[in-house]
Amino acid sequence: MSFTSRFLNLTDYCMVEFIYSNTNTQQECDVYLVDNKLNNTHQFFASNGIDNVTHNIQDYSAIPYGNNKFVRLDEENDILDSSPSYVKSPLIHAQAFYDTVRYHFVSGIDVKSYAGLVLGVKNLENSGKYNIFSSLLLTSLNYQDLVTFNTNPIYLAGTIYDRYVDVLIPSIKKMNNLYYSLPDDDPDPLDGDDQTKKTTLAAKLTLTDASNLDGNFTGFLRENPITFFIDECGSVTNLVTDDATYEMYVSSHHVEASLPQINEFDLLSCDIYEAADGNYYMYHAKYNGGYPGEFLASISDANSNWVIIHQINVYEYTAHGGVIKSSSITTYQQDEFDSPNLFRPIIKNAGVAVSFSMDYMVRLLNQSNGEQIIRTASTMRNSGVNRYGKNTVAIKMDAAPSAHKVYNRVFKSKLTQSDLFMEPEFNHASKGTSVSASSSGVVERITRYPMYVDYNKISVSSTALPQADYSGDSVVYSQGDLRVILKPFDNNLKFRVYYNSNGNSVPMQLDPVNVYKLVFIVNSRNDKVMFDHVTDENTARLVDGDVVFRIPSVDSAKILASPVRDFYITSYNYSTLQESVVYHGFWHKPSEVDAYNEHVAKIHAKYGVATKNANTLQQLVNSATTGSAGTIPSSVYVPGYVDQSSNNSEVSSTLKLKPRA
């Protein structure tokens, strides 16, 4: 099915959308025709049983009662059955085609400020009588039943339309097409085809005598505009008759506007697509597959002033299924309709976003009467998201790039060969480094140039714990213990995060779904400079506890000028939208290297004591389990040990040991 819409502003709080060609069929639809002799109009509504389908039912409707007055229709207290001014007739129709009328309302509308709003649609019959296809009465009592909140609100000229009411009406265009395609009378009643004009819904809705289903009919004016109206009712009074009392709504303001039955904008569309010659997108309106300039020129006259409004919403998608609306732009176009517009989206979370999409909406607006025609399109990119990130670096090259192998010829003795620039726990030879040696002792191998990083080991624990593989030259810094030296150049800081496992520090597997940030406090107002972690797995693997941050020199200068020395490593989860602190440390200037070294010496000494105590306890365990001889100290420092010999169970700093028997 194909749906096209046209929009029309009725008031400053309501915009009507008429959705053409909604060809859904409603089976066994019981509808009614009312001949209103007070206003010389016909009115249509459906039975209450299909309220969830059409909303165009008796209990939601009102009928005109003279000028500027409406009586609420109620099946249980039905004025149509008691007043001679109304003639109600049932029209059983097995199959009917419907168009949708959608009333969009501004965000925050207060329906309670009105006694009621009558939302109506009408069209002219050949007899000159208006036929009301819908007369929905919206009040604070039925507001919750009728209003739907829009998950994708419409934003126009500073106004947000985030809720709407749908009403289904018989498709006037389809009724007329069938009505005018059939003969007035069947010329051959015996041929088995007895379809004539009088069998159509258009004929039944325009009966001269509504009580006589076989009577005369007039049909609707072909291609006559459809009229939409709103009556703002400021008060409610009682209409008292001999039989009953009915609610009557008094209109204080009436507004109406029209749209054509035939949509001359059927061939209007829009398109958004990635450019072939760069990192940007092209977007524009289209008519019949081409640019709309010639079409807009053909429909422009003294009573119309058409402009195009473009709106693009950008959505970013993270690996765990989170969706972030990162930006929205709106532009106005008054000329040069035969060329595309250019746009480059900025993906704010390019480090974690796995894809992004753009929803594109074109509004063709007639500034003379407020009429709008809206078309939408969308596009999605599932790879190469980083090319649309915040930072792009252009490298000017004299020639086209090509792949090269870099060889370092290292002269070494066969017995003293060792890798350079290696972290203690990594062995590059085991990772496929190519090594060959000649008889002269010349070693030839392919080696990557190193990226120099400041490598630190940190623990989420607040207690100083020895590393499981501690050998005296490696320290895992507990919370607040780490100091780093920031240089006035580019800084590459690498951290391996540990946690406490049975008294030892072991690497903690970091969640790859989260975004890890390095945050510096730069003043007393807690203003921050932040850096997202590097997502290159060749540099750092989160599953191994490694996280790397790059600080450009321009940001290093800002931080070094700050009187505040705190930095934090945080973890941000896009699913819960919460940020938590992983580690807190401090930084030094290069000129403060003495203070830095003094602090590091203290931390090493503290960790040395912790390791010595851990080794002593392990020695005790080994002695107890193996019975091996050895020197056993008479006491050992154990933090938090409870002295059992003390009556008040005080915490003792020393565990007393007995010699082996």
Q: Which structural class should the secondary elements be placed in? A: mainly beta
Which strand-content bin applies to the residues? Answer: 35-45%
The average pLDDT value, as a whole number, equals: 78
Helix fraction by DSSP (H/I, runs of at least 4)? 10-25%
From the alpha-carbon coordinates, what is the Rg to the nearest angstrom?
A: 40 Å
Low-confidence stretches: 412-434, 468-472, 638-642, 648-653
Number of separate domains: 5
Question: Given the structure, what is the number of helices?
Answer: 7
Main sheet makeup: 17 strands, mixed
Question: What is the terminal separation in angstroms?
Answer: 94 Å
Instruction: Write down the overall geometry.
Output: elongated
Give a nutshell description of this structure.
With 661 residues, the protein is mostly beta strands. It is built from seven helices and 34 strands.
Describe the structure in your own words.
This protein is mainly β and 661 residues long. The protein has 5 domains: 4-186 and 194-259, no CATH class; 268-388, Sandwich (Immunoglobulin-like), CATH 2.60.40; 407-446, no CATH class; 454-605, Sandwich (Immunoglobulin-like), CATH 2.60.40; 631-661, no CATH class. The strands form 6 sheets. The protein has a 17-stranded mixed sheet that branches. It starts with a strand and ends in a 5-residue tail after the last strand. The model is unreliable at 412-434, 468-472, 638-642 and 648-653 (pLDDT under 50).
